[in-house]
Amino acid sequence: MAAAAAAAAVGGSQSPQAELPAPGLALDKAATAAHLKAALSRPDNRAGAEELQALLERVLSAERPLAAAADGEEAAAAGGGGGPGAAEEEALEWCKCLLAGGGGYDEFCAAVRAYDPAALCGLVWTANFVAYRCRTCGISPCMSLCAECFHQGDHTGHDFNMFRSQAGGACDCGDSNVMRESGFCKRHQIKSSSNIPCVPKDLLMMSEFVLPRFIFCLIQYLREGYNEPAADVPSEKDLNKVLQLLEPQISFLEDLTKMGGAMRSVLTQVLTNQQNYKDLTSGLGENACAKKSHEKYLIALKSSGLTYPEDKLVYGIQEPSAGTSTLAVQGFAGATGTLGQLDSSDEEDQDGSQGLGKRKRVKLSSNTKDQSIMDVLKHKSFLEELLFWTIKYEFPQKMVTFLLNMLPDQEYKVAFTKTFVQHYAFIMKTLKKSHESDTMSNRIVHISVQLFSNEELARQVTEECQLLDIMVTVLLYMMESCLIKSELQDEENSLHVVVNCGEALLKNNTYWPLVSDFINILSHQSVAKRFLEDHGLLVTWMNFVSFFQGMNLNKRELNEHVEFESQTYYAAFAAELEACAQPMWGLLSHCKVRETQEYTRNVVRYCLEALQDWFDAINFVDEPAPNQVTFHLPLHRYYAMFLSKAVKCQELDLDSVLPDQEMLMKLMIHPLQIQASLAEIHSNMWVRNGLQIKGQAMTYVQSHFCNSMIDPDIYLLQVCASRLDPDYFISSVFERFKVVDLLTMASQHQNTVLDAEHERSMLEGALTFLVILLSLRLHLGMSDDEILRAEMVAQLCMNDRTHSSLLDLIPENPNPKSGIIPGSYSFESVLSAVADFKAPVFEPGGSMQQGMYTPKAEVWDQEFDPVMVILRTVYRRDVQSAMDRYTAFLKQSGKFPGNPWPPYKKRTPLHPSYKGLMRLLHCKTLHIVLFTLLYKILMDHQNLSEHVLCMVLYLIELGLENSAEEESDEEASVCGPERCHDSWFPGSNLVSNMRHFINYVRVRVPETAPEVKRDSPASTSSDSLGSLQNSGTAQVFSLVAERRKKFQEIINRSSSEANQVVRPKTSNKWSAPGSAPQLTTAILEIKESILSLLIKLHHKLSGKQNSYYPPWLDDIEILIQPEIPKYSHGDGITAVERILLKAALQSRMNKRIIEEICRKVTPPVPPKKVTAAEKKTLDKEERRQKARERQQKLLAEFASRQKSFMETAMDVDSPENDIPMEITAAEPQISEAVYDCVICGQSGPSSEDRPTGLVVLLQASSVLGQCRDNIEPKKLPITEEEQIYPWDTCAAVHDVRLSLLQRYFKDSSCLLAVSIGWEGGVYVQTCGHTLHIDCHKSYMESLRNDQVLQGFSVDKGEFTCPLCRQFANSVLPCYPGSNVENNLWQRPSNKNIQDLIKEVEELQGRPGAFPVSISSETNLSKEMESVMKDIKNTTQKKYRDYSKTPGSPDNDFLFMYSVARTNLELELIHRGGNLCSGGASTAGKRSCLNQLFHVLALHMRLYSIDSEYNPWRKLTQLVEEVNSQLGNEEQQPEVPILYHDVTSLLLIQILMMPQPLRKDHFTCIVKVLFTLLYTQALVALSVKCSEEDRSAWKHTGALKKNTCDAEKSHEVLLSFVISELSKGKLYHEEGTQECAMVSPIAWSPESMEKYLQDFCLPFLRITSLLQHHLFGEDLPSCQEEEEFSVLSSCLGLLPTFYQTEHPFISASCLDWPVPAFDIISQWCFEINGFTERHAEQGKALLIQESRWKLPHLLQLPENYNTIFQYYHRKTCSVCTKVPKDPAVCLVCGTFVCLKGLCCKQQSYCECVLHSQNCGAGTGIFLLINASVIIIIRGHRFCLWGSVYLDAHGEEDRDLRRGKPLYICKERYKVLEQQWISHTFDHINKRWGPHYNGL
What we know:
This protein is of the alpha+beta class. The chain has 78 helices and 30 strands. It is flat and about 135 Å long.
C-alpha cells in the first residue's frame, strides 16, 4: 500500500511537468532499466520499487495521448512535434527496455521462450482461416486444429475435413479435454513438465512491476475514449478511431502472450490480482486524472443499464462467500426493478416504429429472482474490466485475440470463463443493440466455443456461477423484446403470446450465439443432468419454448391473392430448429438408459403443463379454427420426442406418462391440422397465399427439418391413435381433410367445405396420411440402423445420389453426439449394403459426371418402400421419379412388363406399447369408408383415381396382415342380432367384416341425383322396417355424428360432472349461407360384400369377365406357403389377387365365400352408358394416339431430310477440286458443288452474286506456341524453389529468331523467311453447315433485335449455327467452282520439270490472271474482303505486326500465309503430331482449309512480290552477278536462302499462284523446295559434328563426286557442302569450351540417314496435309518407321520406278532443277558472306531440325492439398498481400489474383489480362480456394468444373466439404483435349460475359 500511495503522491506532484521524462532518464533507457533491476533484486527493494513507480507514472501518464486522440494538431505541437503517436511509441520503448531489465528486448523474448512448457498449441485464428477437424480424434464436436498441427499428426484413414473458419477459433492440439491424445501432433504430444527448467526469479521480475501499470494505462485509454453513442448516430467511427490509436499497445500485449507459458502466467497474475486493481483504479487518491477516468467508468456502467453495487449495506456486510448462492445475496438488491420496467425506457421507442399494434409485454413470475443476472456488475480485477470494455467496444478483433491467446494458461482459463459468464447478460444486451450484429456474433462465439466445449470447465461454472440460470434467463429476456399476441384459434380473447418472426432479432438470427452456447453446454452430460434435475429451470425453459408455439400463423386467403408475400417463414423454421429442437436433441442424448427415467418424467410433466396452459390461453375446446395453420408446435414435439425416448431406451411404461383422453384429443388436433393443410397446399387450395406457403410445406418435410418437425408430429398422432377410440380418430381424420361428404354411396353429393376440383386430391391426401400413419415405424420399434437403412433406400430410389448429397439428405439426428454422425462407420456400411457405386464416366463433350450411388437390384426387389418415399419427398415429382425407376427395374429384370403399382412392403414389428395403433384397421368406421370407396370405384363415380384405389387396397392389406388372432368361433359370432342394431358390420374385425354382405343402404342425396328417380325396392315402410334386421339395410352413416357421439362419451367418462355441455358445432363458419343443398333420402340396393367387390374389381381391372379364379383350387400348396414371389410386384390385379389370397388364408369362411362368388357365373354386365367424363378420357386417348402417329411421321420425314443433308454436307468435304487450265470444255464430268442453306433450306451452287458461306468460328490461339522441345512434362510449381521459365517454348524460340534476322537483314525479306502465329495465330474451324450470306445477314439482324441473348454478343458478330447451335462468329465464303472428278487433273503430267518451273514463274508474275477481278466489286469479293477483316481482327495487333515499318504490306503478306500455316500445324497436332494414321481430315466435313485458302490466295495476290526478290528465282536459277549483293554496303542484305523457313516458302509459292491450282505445278514447287530443305539438313548436320568428322566426310564424299548419281548421294552432297562452307567462317569460331559441349556421337551412315529424314519430315507432313486439302486425296496410313517414304511417294517426290528392296535413302527423292553443285555453292556463298562479319549469329540462324513435342498443360500433383497449402497463403507479386481469390494458370503456371483490384490495369483485371498475354484470349485457371477450373475465352468465361475429385468421385466446389481431393486423370485429359482442339466454345454451355472483371 505504501508504495502505491507514494506513487500516487509522486504522480500527483509531478503531473504539471509530465510532458517528457526527466532528461537524465531519457538519455539512456537501458542503463536506467539495469539500475532499477539491480535495485529491485536487493532483499529490501522498497526504494527501487518507489523509483520504478515514479518512472512509470511519468512514462505511462494517460493524459497526454488522449488529448492527442481528441485533437491531433494541438497534441502534435505539445508533444514536441512528434505527432500524436510519438509519445505512445516512446512509452512502449520504455516498457520493452524495462521488461528486459537493461538487456536487448529480442534476447529477453528468446530467454523467456526457452521456459515455455508448450503442451498446448492454442493458436488463435480469425474468420476465413483454413483449419481442420478430425471426427475420429475429437471428443467435442467443435474440436479444430491448425494446418500445421494437423499435418504433423497422424490422421490417415480418419474422418477429417478441412474447413474455412466462419467465426474464428483456436487450435486444440494438446488439450486432452477436447480431443484424444492419439491425434496430437509431434510438438504437443504431452511433454512432462520435468524437462522444463524452473523460471529464474529475476528474469520476469520487472514484468511483474511494469505490466500492472501498463494494463491500467490501457484501461484508462479505453475509459477515456468511450463516449456513449448518441441515440441516432451510430458511433462506430469514434470507437474505431480509439482502437486504431491503441493498436500498438494491444499488439504489444499480444506479442507478450506469444512468448509462451512463463510470460502467460505472469500476465494471469496481473490480470486476476484483485489488490492491484483496487489500488490503481479506485479513483480515490488525489490524482485528478485517475478520478476523471473512474467517473467515466461509472457513467459507462450506468448507461449500460447496469448498477455498480456501491451499496455498502448489502455488500459490506455479506461479501458472499464462495459457498453461498450469489442469488440469495443479490436477491433483494435486484428485487426492486422488474424486468419489464428495466427495459421499458429504451425498448418502447423501437417498438413503436414497428407498427404492429399494441404489444403486450409479459412479465415472467421468476423475474424477481433473476433480476441480478440482468443488471448487476461488479469488477474486481483488470481482467473483468478489460472484458467489460471489450464488450463495450463491440469485440475488437485484436482484443479478442489477446484474450484468447492467454487461454493455454489453465488458471487464466478458469478466471476468464467465470468473468465471461458474469458478463453474459451484458454481452447479449450489447449484441441486441449492435449495428454489426453479424460480426459481433462471430466474435462472441469465437470466444465462447473455446470456453464451453470443455466439459470440466462447463461443469465448474455451472456449479459456481449459475451458468444455466443465466443462459435461460438471458434467452427469455432476449425473446421477450419481440412478443406479439397470438392470433391462433380465438383471435379476440387469446392470452397466448408468440415471437414475431418479422423482427430483426429473428430475421437476422441475432440469437444464434446464445443458442449455440446453450446447445454446446447441454452436450456435456454433467451439465445436462443438472438442467434436467432443476424443476425451476425446466418450467422456465418450457415457458421459453411456448413463445414459439404457434408462431408465424398462416391464414388461408379465400378471395384475392395476397398483396405482399412475407418471407418470415424461414426465420420461423430456423428459430424452431435452433432455439427449440437442437437443445431438445441435446437433452435427449443424455436420456439413453434406464437410470435416466426420472429426467424424462420431469420434462414430460412440465411439457404437459405448458401445453395445458397453452390450450387454455388460446381458448381451445375441440374444433380447430378453419383456414389457419401454423407449422410450429415445439411443445408437442418435445413431448413426442421424450415419449419416444422413454419407450425406446428407458423402458418406461408409456401409459404412465400419458395424460387423460381429453388431453390426448386436444393434442392430436394441431398436428393433424398440419397434415391436412399439407394436402390442401398440394391441392393448390392455398395458391392465393403465394409461393411462400409452398415453401413452408417443403421446409417442413425437408431433410434438415423433418426429424424435428414432421416425424415427431406423426409419432404423436400415432400415440394418440393407439390410445383413443379408433372410430373417433378415423372420423376426425376424414373431417379434417374435408372429404366426409364425398364418402357416400350416392353417385352425386354436395360438399359444403370443398370445391369439386380439390376433392380427389384431398381424398388421396387423407388415405395416404392414414397409410403413412399405420405403416411408419420410425419411432415405433425400428432400430437406429434400420432407420438409417430405410432413409437411405428411400433417397436412392428417388434418384441416384452422390455421397455428399446422401449425407445431406438423410436426416441425421441433429445432436452431433448421437452416434449416427454422417460419415461414421454405420453410414458407410449401410451404404455399401444397399447401393452400388457408379464411377464417373467421361465422354469427351459430355457433361462432367460425378460418382453416383445407385440402389442394388435386391433393394428394388425387396426394400423399395413407397410410403417412406412419399414421407421424404420435398417435390411431388420425386415420387413419380421413384416409381419410374421401379418400373424400369421390373421391366429390365423381367419381373413385370406393365405399369406396376407401388409394392406392399412388410413392416418391422410394432413395439408392444403401440399395439393399440392397429385397432384403427379394425374399426367399423374405416371398414365403411373402404367399402364405400370400393363401391364407388366399381361404379365409376367421379373424382376417384387409381391412387385412391391403390391406397384403399393397401389399407385392406395392412388390416389383413395385422388382424387379431385367428377367430376361433367365427361362425358363432355372426348371429346375435343385438350386434347389428344400427351399424353396417357385425363386428370390428376386418377379416370377418370382409365377407359381410350389405344389401341396402340409405343415403342422403341431392334431389337431382339419379338415385331419387328410381322406386326404392322396399315399397312400404313397414316392410323395410320389419326386414331391417335380416336384410341388413344400414342407416345413413354420418362420420361427423359418429365423432361427436364418441367425443361426448369420452368427455363424460373423463369428467365427473356428467352434465358438461359439448360446445355446439361451429359449422356455420364452414358453408356460405343459402348454399345448403336440398337433401333427400334414398335407399340403394347394394348386395355386395368387400370380397365380392374385390372380385368384381379384378374383372374390371383385367377387362375380362370371370377373370378371377381362386389359385388354391389348382394348387393347394399356396395356402401352406403363402409368400409367393409372383405376387410381390405387379399392378392392381396382382394386388387384388394377393389380398384375396391373404383373406382366404386367414379364415376358412372367407375361402368358402370367395369360391362361392366365383362359382356364380357373373351375368354379363350391361353395356354401360358412357358418361361425359369418360367420353372425355376416351377422346383424350384417341387424340393422343393420333398425335403420336403424326409425330412419328414428322420424325421420319425429318430423319430423311437430315440424311440427305448429311450427304450433301459430305460433298462439301471433298472440297472444290477445281479444273486445271488445260482441260478442254469437251470434258463431260463437270458438276458444280451444291450447298444447302440451313436458313432458307434451298440448295444450289455458290455464285458471284449470291455466295454461300461456311459457318466458322475464328479464334486466336497460342496452343502452338506452347509446344516444348523436351519430353519431361512441366509440373505446376508447389514450392518456392520450383519455377517455370518460358524460354524453351516454341513461341519464344521463333520470336528470338525473327528479331535476330531483323537485326541483320532487310525487313521485307525477313518477313518472307519465317512464319508467325505461334502465339495469337488465327485458327478457323467450322461445324460444316453452309448458309447464304444474305440469309446470314438477316439472321444476325433478327438476333440483334432479340433481347434474350444467352452468353454471346451479336455486336461482335457472334451467333450460333442455326442448325446445330454451335458457336460461331463469321462466315467463310465458298469459292464458286466445280466439283471435278479428281483423276482428270491429277494425271501425271508429261512435261519435264524445267517447263513447269517456267510456268510457275509466269503464273506468279501475272496478278490479273484471276477469275474475279477485284476492280469489279461483286458480292463475293466484298464478302472475301470482310472475312479477311474478321480474320485480322480476331487476334491482337501485337500478334500481327512484326515489321519495323508499321502497316507495311509485307506485314499483311506475312500474316496471311501464317494463318494458313497455323491451321495446318494445328491440324497436325490434332492428328497426334504425325500422319501415320492417314485417313480423311480429322472431323470429316468439318475442314474449311480449302475455302480458307481461296480467301487467303485472293488477298495475297494483291501484293505481287517484286519479281527480283521472288525467292523462286533463287531456288531455280543461277544468278550471274554475284557481287551486286555485297556491293551495296549500307543497305541491309536479303536473307540468305538457306536461312529461309521452307514451309513458309511453300505456302508463299502456292498462295501466289492463280487459284484453281494444277496438281503438277504443286508437285513441281514441292520438288524444288525439297532440294533446298535437303541442303539445309546437310548444313545443319555438318555443323553438328566435330572437326575430325567433317574432314573425314569431306574426303570420302569427294572421291565419289564424279559417279553417275552423285547428285542423289548424301555423302557426296555433304562433302561438297562442307568444302563450300569451309571457305567462310562458319566452322571457325568455335572456342575450346564449345568443343567440350559437342557430344562425341559417332555418326554411322544409318544415324545420318535418320537425322536427315527427321529433319525433312515436318515439311513433308505439312505438304501432304496441304495436298490432301487442295486436291482431296486421302492420306495413306503407315508405320512410324516408313512415314518418310510413304509421304514422299504420295507427294510425287519419289521416282515411280524406285525399288524399295534395299534400305531407303532420303537423297533419292532429290530432283535438282539446276546442277546441284552450282546451286549449292551459290547458296553457301551467301552464308559465307554473312559469317565473314557475324560468325556466331551465322550459326545461330541456321535452320535446326524441328524437335517440338505436342503441347500439354502443366502436370498437376496427385493430391489437391499440396497445391492448396502452397498457393492459398502465397502473396500477390503486385501488392504483397494474400489475394482473396488466388488462381493459377494451368498453361504456364503464373500465379494471378482473380478479381483482384490491386492488379488491375486499365480496367482489365489480372486473369483477363493474363488470358490475353498467355493464350491470346484463352485462359485456363485453377481457382485455388474453390478447386474449380475457370475458362476465359475472349469476352466470356465459364466454370469448367473440377479435375480434383474426392474418394467418392465427387467435386468439392469451394472446398465446402473439405475432404481430401485427388486428381482425376481422365477429366484432366478431357480438359487438355478441349484446349488443344479449341472446342471450349462448343462443349461448355454456360458462358457469361466477364466485363474484364476477373
